[in-house]
Each structure stands twice: as C-alpha cells, then as structure tokens.
Amino acid sequence: MNIDILQGKTTEHLVLLEGTKCFIHNLMLTDFLRLQKDALKEGFDLKIISAFRDYDRQLKIWNLKASGERPLLDDQERPLEFSKLSPIEIIMAILRWSALPGSSRHHWGSDIDVYDAKTQKEDEVKLVPSETMNHGPAARLHEWLDLKISSDSSYGFYRPYATDRGGVSPERWHLSYYPISRRYLESYTFSLFKKNIEESDLILKETVLENADEIFRRFFLNVDVP
Ligand SMILES: [Zn+2]
Description:
About 40% of the residues lie in helices and about 10% in strands. The chain has about 230 residues and is α+β, with helices and mostly antiparallel strands. The protein has one domain: Muramoyl-pentapeptide Carboxypeptidase, domain 2. The strands form two sheets. A four-stranded antiparallel beta sheet has the order 3-4-6-5. It has a two-stranded antiparallel sheet with strand order 1-2. The longest helix is centred in the N-terminal third of the chain and has 13 residues. The chain starts with a helix and ends in a 5-residue tail after the last helix. The chain binds zinc ion. The site of zinc ion has 6 residues, from strand 4.
C-alpha cells in the first residue's frame, strides 16, 4: 500500500474522466461509466462535481475555515458566528463538513460527490442536504441511486455518510467505490493519521493533536458500510 495515495500526495492511481476535469481511481472507471449510463436510461444526467482532491487543496480548505475566512455552517446549513467559538468548537464544526488534510476520502480517487446535471448547473450546486431531499433538485436522482446501488452490489458504490453517526454530517451526494475504499480505510492507521497532522501546516494544529484519538474514531473510522 502506497501511503501517499491514502494522504492525497500522489496522482499515480488516477485517470482523467473524459470530457471533465475530474480525476478518479483507475479501477473505478468502468463501474462508474456503467452507473452513469444506466442513470441516463432513467433520465438522469449523473455527473461528478468533486472527485480526487489533493493534500494541498484540502489543507487550503481547512485553513480557510479554521481562520474564519470561509463560513462554518451548523447542521441546518446556517452560518455560525466564528468569533464566539472556542478552538475545539471550530474544529468540530469544520469536521462535520470537511476532513483534515491527509485523511479526506477524496484523496483516494474512490470517492465522489455527484449531482444531476439535468436539474442543476454545475455552478449552482452547493452540496447541502436540502438539494438531495424532498423536492430538492437532486432528490429524484438519489432516490433512484438508493434502489440501484443497494439492490445491485456489482456497481461497487455505496454511501459512507448515509446516516448521522455523530461524526461527519449525512452527505447523500457522496458516493464511495467500496472495493477500493474498504482497503484504504483498513490500511489507514492511527499512527499514520497522527504523524500526518504533526508534520502539517494546519491552523489549530495543537488542539487537533490533543483530540487526535477522538477525531480519528469519530470522523474517520465512523462511517456507514454497505
Ligand atoms: Zn464528498
């Protein structure tokens, strides 16, 4: 196992999805294209809005949020008042929606955020729960996906953030390719997680390290399985 793949520090495992700017795991390409084709037959234009994200990009996202330059949202998608939060409250608020650099599943190429390009333009997609439920623009796509991927495991896709387990917020738009991501999750040790944080240029690093064990269990290991 190449540790750099687990932490978003290489692109050797990726291929560019034709006609897009998205890089995905090369072993996932065939099954993703099949899912996309089957969605099209049902009238959905299943597109990826976010696939592989490298370490530096994730670090930038973290530091913008940890410094208050990018808004933090509560569970109801409302902005939190940054100046009133303690360091640990800021960290926990970020982790509901964003991973620490080095331990994002988006580093793996096996995990993607999807939308229905029939009902939303790419620049309109916000990736919030309301888009995927009730009468949201991606709701019907996700209802179809629920049936499709749970009844036919040969696609390989499932939802690691389907339910609220007290860690990462439910993210219906996030799909994971289990044959790959299961192996990566199993290979990712706590010592690797901790060492990565120690070596990073993370804002609020000291508080993250003090709480590393809880963060690893609650926000990284704590995902749904198929
Ligand atoms: Zn995602």
